[in-house]
Design a protein that fits this description.
The protein is an alpha+beta fold. 40% of the residues lie in helices and 20% in strands. The chain has three domains: 4-292, no CATH class; 303-417, no CATH class; 426-485, Arc Repressor Mutant, subunit A (Orthogonal Bundle), CATH 1.10.10. It is built from 17 helices and 16 strands. A hairpin with a 4-residue loop joins strand 13 and strand 14. The radius of gyration is 30 Å and the shape is elongated.
Length: 486
């Protein structure tokens, strides 16, 4: 299917529903644990199993996290909240209904600004509401049966629903990326899409350019990576355009995405709101949120990426690009802040974190939070290289790996042990240069006749002759000066 059609003749209209699984230790209405990876059906209780006579009770962390995310996305906080029953039958929903919010979402009328192709676009957030997750159906372990794991049943979720303000796969991908970054900074969700703790449902419709009436929307469920969000929208929008161009209708339905071949396929006809028969949850009292509570939550909130970018560019003089890269990960941003407490070389620290340190983390599978070299030691390494005592390349390739193995040792002491310190005695260096020039008089004549590329040859010979590390730039400068004055 060609994407050119959507660009030239049709508008794509996209709304997103993102489910963020909260990092609470227990479930939203029961004391069961929520740890990922436990053996199937080991984190369940009578409440999760919906035994007769059991009653839910609200985990106090859930509204706190909801208010925190609402404030971070510029929402109005609902002072009066009630829970509702969303009725539907599925094997992994023991009660036969899901406790959610309907008429009174805890957060509403917010927005999140995204940046795509250097342009800022505001995406309106219709609502954020609290609800419980369902269990997990496993269909691929037995050809005759589906298995049910109820460990996830009752895990607290926040559902973040946008208005249909997105108009391209890139915008949708960037929105989910920035929302994931936000929940990770807040600490309310780990944002791990592969493990299902952040899942995205995409509502997609297409319409001829210039037409005000929206087309028939189709929902694609449970997209589990940023890449798949983009791929699913690309395929589904082109599928709908192809149907319209053939004179056919787009059916209102729920579809799934096959990541193996990049296509969507139908699951069921799309439910309408009245199909769920929402009504107030009789076993939970309304929840009142005061201004004092909102203020207390706001006081506890950590600094967010936008604020850190402003500090990194304004106070520390970094470029917008550097600041954006450093704040992409909360752990990296905090490690940067900790490191510059020990040195004023703000730009140099940024270069190390975006260069050798990032390369190490990528190769070892570690993050800045588990980087074995303490911030103070990294600052000492940065200052050591900035002083010229160790060249940057040697420090990155030899000294940093040694520090990973012995992080308790000062990098200068370690460099001395490994004989990595640069030769700073110019007299000794000039002596080496004289030996090389006397050894290759013909090359000296060629250089003086204009063959300037031989400078690299001389640098190599001096480096090989030395028994200590040399500063390549110092060797270059002294050699050039000596040759030009010969």
């Amino acid at each position: 299917m060609s994407s050119a059609n959507s660009t030239n003749q049709y508008d794509i209209v996209i709304g997103l529903e993102v489910h963020a699984q909260l990092t609470t230790e227990s479930k939203i209405f029961a004391p069961d644990a929520t740890a990922f990876g436990a053996a199937p059906n080991t984190q369940v209780s009578y409440i999760t199993l919906a035994h007769p006579g059991t009653l839910p009770f609200l985990n106090q962390k859930v509204p706190e996290y909801a208010v925190m995310l609402g404030l971070a996305t510029n929402c109005t906080i609902q002072t009066y909240n009630e829970f509702s029953r969303k009725n539907y039958f599925y094997a992994d929903l023991p009660k036969g209904y899901q406790i959610s919010q309907y008429d009174t979402p805890i957060c509403y009328n917010g927005h999140l600004d995204i940046t795509v192709n250097n342009a800022v676009k505001r995406i309106r957030i219709n609502r954020i509401h609290m609800e419980e997750d369902a269990g997990k159906s496993i269909h691929d372990q037995n050809p005759q049966y589906s298995y049910i794991d109820l460990n996830r049943a009752g895990v607290p979720l926040l559902e973040i629903v946008t208005e249909p303000d997105l108009n391209s796969p890139d915008e949708a991908q960037q929105y989910v990326a920035q929302l994931r970054q936000l929940v990770q900074y807040l600490g309310v969700c780990d944002g791990n899409m592969e493990e299902g703790s952040l899942r995205c449902d995409v509502n997609i419709s297409v319409k001829p350019k210039g037409q005000t009436q929206l087309g028939q929307r189709v929902e694609v469920k449970n997209l589990n990576s940023l890449r798949n969000v983009k791929r699913a929208i690309e395929f589904e929008s082109n599928r709908q355009i192809a149907l319209l161009q053939q004179g056919q209708y787009v059916q209102r339905e729920t579809r799934s995405f096959d990541a193996n071949n990049g296509t969507t396929f139908p699951l069921r006809s799309k439910e309408l709101e009245h199909d769920y028969r929402y009504f107030p949850e009789p076993d939970l009292q309304p929840l009142y949120i005061s201004e004092a509570y909102i203020a207390a939550v706001k006081h506890k909130m950590p600094r967010l990426p936008k604020e850190l970018v402003e500090q990194f560019t304004g106070t520390f003089g970094l470029s917008l690009y550097d600041a954006t890269v450093l704040t992409d990960s909360k752990e990296t941003a905090l490690f940067y802040l900790e490191t510059i407490q020990h040195t004023g070389l703000h730009k140099a620290v940024a270069n190390w974190l975006m260069g050798p340190v990032k390369a190490f983390m990528n190769n070892s599978g570690k993050t800045a939070g588990s980087f074995p070299v303490p911030a103070k030691r990294l600052a000492q390494l940065v200052e050591l290289t900035d002083s010229g005592a160790v060249s940057f390349s040697v420090a990155a390739q030899e000294l940093l790996p040694a520090m990973v193995q012995q992080p308790e040792i000062h990098p200068k002491q370690l460099a001395e042990q490994l004989e990595l310190l640069v030769q700073t005695d110019n007299n000794a260096l000039l002596n080496l240069i004289e030996q090389v020039l006397q050894q290759y008089p013909d090359k000296v004549k060629e250089y003086k006749k204009g063959k300037k590329g031989l400078l690299g040859f001389f640098v190599g010979q001096v480096t090989r002759l030395s028994t200590t590390k040399l500063d390549p730039q110092a060797v270059n400068n002294l050699l050039a000066e000596r040759l030009n004055n010969a």
